[in-house]
Amino acid sequence: MGKTTRKVAIIGTGLVGSSAAYSIINQGICEELLMIDINKERAIGESLDLSHCIDFVNSRTKVRAASYSDLEDVDVAIITAGPPPKPGQTRLDTLGIGAKIMEDIVPQIMASGFDGIFLIASNPVDIITYHVWKLSGLPRHRVIGTGTSLDSSRLKTFLSEILDVDPRSISGYMMGEHGDSQFAAWSHTYVGGKPLLEILEERKEELGEIDLDEIVDKVRKVGFEILKRKGTTYYGIGNALAYITKSIFNDDHKIIALSCVLDGEYGEREICTGVPAVITREGIKEIIELRLTEEEQAKFKQSNAILRQYMESIGYKQEILVQFSQKNSIF
């Protein structure tokens, strides 16, 4: 990534991919944006439509439809391709189809000579990110999933409504699976630097009894509430993808809750799960290990156990995980 032109590819130009592209263009995050889709006409149409934004924004982004062979010098490859959950399904239920899609597209991307950073939003994002890591052979710090970044944003939004403060003044993380087993690290949630739990205790008379489990349940379910009403979610995750991409190019060293491949952090190995991490121009610089309470540690272990159960359905059994443990394990 020593060149001056910042180049991004989006694989999957549906609602999530096109929303991410729209955010990237409006924020002037890169100079060149490639749009790739199995439906080539869709990719061309989105590229044309997006290119007509340029007269109304502050910087020029060249947008074009592309193929996998064009990805050799791309800095960030964003993968959004994959099926949304059907009514009654969880994100985990889409794993079989999602894994096969990655088995088709990742080898084609790598065959181009791609040597950048993968940023994955395809669900179930934790397992798909792990799968892309194995398929690509890239070091783990350059294969990143959106993880619980959006869930953490939703958490801060709900808390901001209760406390009447800007969500950007709240620091806190949802962790574990981007799905039903995620949990809030309440012991590390702060408002203006003050512990949330302390604030709730001090303002109990004003705020009443705040059910923290109810807030977490709301965070878990809100994506499906949106899906039920409009078919799918795309603005929040699209902006999250743009935010992470911008943080990479700017070498921000921001701490974001992402899907990261763990190699000893939190006592876990050979799993990808949502944890706070420092993001830089080279990818993940450091995974932040929070000192969780015993209850939070138990929830984290349980969430990862569920992910491992589903990982086995696409061939990542324990003996295979041990076999792979020496590969790509160093930042």
Structural features, described:
This protein is an alpha/beta fold and 331 residues long. The protein has a domain at 7-145: 3-Layer(aba) Sandwich (Rossmann fold). The chain has helices spanning 15-26, 40-51, 95-111, 125-136, 149-163, 196-202, 204-207, 212-230, 235-249, 294-312, 318-324; strands spanning 7-11, 32-36, 62-65, 76-79, 117-120, 143-145, 170-171, 174-175, 183-184, 190-191, 194-195, 254-263, 269-280, 283-287.
Brief overview:
The chain has eleven helices and 14 strands. With 331 residues, the protein is an alpha/beta fold. The relative contact order is 0.14.
Q: What's the pLDDT, averaged over the residues?
A: 93
Order of helices and strands: EHEHEEHEHEHEEEEEHHHHEEEHH
Low-confidence parts: 319-331
The count of helical stretches stands at: 11
The CATH superfamily of the domain at 7-145 appears as: NAD(P)-binding Rossmann-like Domain
Strand content is: 15-25%
Shape assignment: globular
- Could you estimate the helical fraction of the residues in percent? 40-55%
- CATH class membership of the domain at 7-145: Alpha Beta
**Record field, number of beta strands:** 14
Major β-sheet annotation: 6 strands, parallel
Distance from N terminus to C terminus (CA atoms, Å) equals: 17 Å
CATH architectural category of the domain at 7-145: 3-Layer(aba) Sandwich
Strand order of the largest sheet: 3-2-1-4-5-6
Q: How large, in whole angstroms, is the Cα Rg?
A: 19 Å
Instruction: Please name the CATH topology of the domain at 7-145.
Output: Rossmann fold
Secondary-structure-based class equals alpha/beta
